[in-house]
From TrEMBL:
Keywords: Oxidoreductase. This is FAD-binding oxidoreductase. SUPFAM superfamilies: FAD-linked reductases, C-terminal domain, FAD/NAD(P)-binding domain. It comes from the Bacteria. Pfam families: DAO (PF01266). InterPro entries: FAD-dep_OxRdtase (IPR006076), FAD/NAD-bd_sf (IPR036188). It comes from Curvibacter cyanobacteriorum. The lineage of its organism: Bacteria, Pseudomonadati, Pseudomonadota, Betaproteobacteria, Burkholderiales.
Amino acid sequence: MSNTVAVLGAGMVGVSCALELQRRGFQVTLVERRAPGQETSYGNAGVIARSSLIPFNHPGLWANLPGLLRNQSPQFRYSPSFLLRHLGWATAFLARARPGPFEETARALDGLIRLSMAEHLRLLTKVGERHRLRDNGWLFLYRSQAAYEAGAAGRAVFERYGVRTQTLDAADLQALEPGFTPGLFPRTLWVQDTSSVDSPGAVTEAYARWFVAQGGRLLSQPVQALARRAEGTGWQLSLGDGGQLQSDRVVVALGPWSAGFLQAQLGVRVPMAYERGYHRHFQPQDGATLGRPVYDTGGAYVLSPMAQGLRLTSGVELTDLDAPRQPLQLALAEDAARQAFPLGARLEAEPWMGSRPTLPDSRPMIGEAPGQPGLWLAFGHQHIGFSTGPGTAALLGALMAGETPAIDAAPFRPGRFWR
């Protein structure tokens, strides 16, 4: 078996893949232009939730589509020019919002999330970061009874897949999280099959440190070129410092940069869109505390307690990877959050910004690239790359070792969108 592997990208997915392949006896080099965990994996709510099995393109999207297309919702904004240039992606994305494709995606993501939760717990314990993990769930907040009732289809999916939830009234919420404005949320759904961490970036960094401590090689260089070796087996990478790296196998785990990289290096077109998100940290005011992440369904934000403060994350902005910043959604989220919770001072002058890579069926590509022996793919995780990185690694590691994976790999096969 070819034994050397270069993993491109040191976000949660890439670092997890490097660790898993190292555990299986491969000689692994992890290549990342920045420090591990400083790109997309840094800027999320830190939630590892079974409720994430419902993607954005679910059957209920059709009823909401006219309102979303007005481009005024704090939950979803889009660049019209981007959408016009990616009509193929948009059409395929909407086509997967039908019941049949949705159920296929929900089943696949449920398996990947379950596997990832167990793997995260194993890794956090091994690297000495178990203290960062909370096991007290997260909350979906509803600003009216009508809004709660409109979420019935989602709750039915949770029940069908065995996701543990509990419905709370206003008094229950006040007892559980007393910092919220009394009476603002008459109904809350407590999703109990959920863990969260207090610093996704620090967790990714800890996994990377463990990889290096176990003998792994970390190169802080951008990859300038990827080509087959002259003898026809294995790969040669040209690095930003002018150096060369040869490897029997390569894993592309570059998140939102994966599609552009593959097109530039191999002429391959992967239909990917970029769901941009923003976050900013705040001090709590008047001694207020928050015990777990919350999702305000009406305010279209997530507020999560982090080591850096209270992290406020915005809704989705569908636009180009390198488009200029648009701070409106985060400003709307801050206004809504201040109605609900005593936020104090902003802790950063400028908000963080990142993009989530989304394929038309909201499932990642995990497996060997068609017609490219030794080129393996692990990207396209939309909003759940941090939570599903370790499960992705377990699946990829089994496939690379020629073993039967713990979950069905077919829904994630790269050939479904490899052109």
